[in-house]
Design brief:
It is globular, with a radius of gyration of 18 Å. It has one domain: Uracil-DNA glycosylase-like domain (Uracil-DNA Glycosylase, subunit E, 3-Layer(aba) Sandwich), CATH 3.40.470. It contains 11 helices and 6 strands. Helix 1 crosses helix 6. The two termini are 27 Å apart. It has a 6-stranded mixed β-sheet, sandwiched between helices.
Length: 243
């Protein structure tokens, strides 16, 4: 185990780490802290004119989708947000990370998973040989619920087509869904998160493999569950390798 990998694993505060995949697989993807641009398609006048029409979300390209999300008024969260939080990362990523909703810091910065929870997510990804530039990260909701309350069902429903289009544009091998609320929204389930772990679910018409684990914010409050999260990451890596 090299020094950098040991540092990442120590950030998860686990004593013993056993990789299920061969070391060569984990080493094939070098961790990095660089953050890739959120999308690779520059806005054009033609896209802007088209988006002003009646194209459904499912037909928008990156630039038009981002523009539509930025001015979205589909629910009352538009009146309380600082800005929308679209998503960040590699638009051709094999892993797509899905969280619940922006928090206060995300609302200020316009980027998902920043602050302490974001730092822990980075460590979790690094522990399996991935950096933020290797994945795409987005939330179910694009606006922060006031007081960081749970998203209302109607709010999530209004946002779901945005997330579905992001997933379609990225076309990932794997969806890693963090937290109970995001898992319930994507799986249309109210089952306890513990019963959803260590299983391969499928999302959407494309049947994208979906794996559920704990939200980093929950792990900060319940560090005893970090070992379970590590088991989930190993499982997710195995699922992605089979796709």
């Amino acid at each position: 185990m090299n020094a950098m990998r040991r540092e990442y694993l120590q950030a998860l505060e686990l004593d013993t780490w056993v990789l299920r995949a061969p070391a060569a697989v984990a080493a094939a993807v070098a961790p990095t802290d660089a953050v890739a641009p959120t999308d690779a398609v520059a806005p054009t006048d033609a896209v802007a004119r088209t988006d002003a029409g009646t194209l459904p979300d499912a037909e928008l390209d990156w630039a038009a989708l981002r523009a539509r999300v930025a001015v979205c008024t589909r629910c009352t969260l538009a009146t309380t947000r600082t800005q929308t939080v679209f998503g960040v990362g590699n638009p051709e990523a094999q892993w797509f990370i899905v969280g619940e909703a922006p928090g206060a810091e995300e609302d200020r910065q316009g980027e998902p998973f920043v602050g302490r929870a974001g730092q822990l997510l980075n460590s979790m990804l690094h522990a399996i040989g991935l950096g933020r530039c290797d994945v795409y990260i987005a939330n179910v909701l694009k606006c922060r619920p006031p007081g960081n309350r749970d998203p209302a069902a109607a709010e999530a429903a209004h946002c779901l087509s945005y997330l579905e289009r992001q997933i379609a544009l990225v076309a990932p091998k794997l969806l890693l869904v963090v937290g109970r609320i995001a898992a319930h929204q994507l799986l249309a389930s109210d089952a306890p998160l513990g019963s959803l772990r260590q299983k391969t679910h499928a999302f959407g018409a494309a049947r994208v493999p979906l794996v559920v684990t704990y939200h980093p914010a929950y792990l900060l409050r319940s560090p005893g569950e970090k070992r379970k999260a590590w088991e989930d990451l190993q499982y997710a890596r195995e699922v992605a390798a089979r796709v």
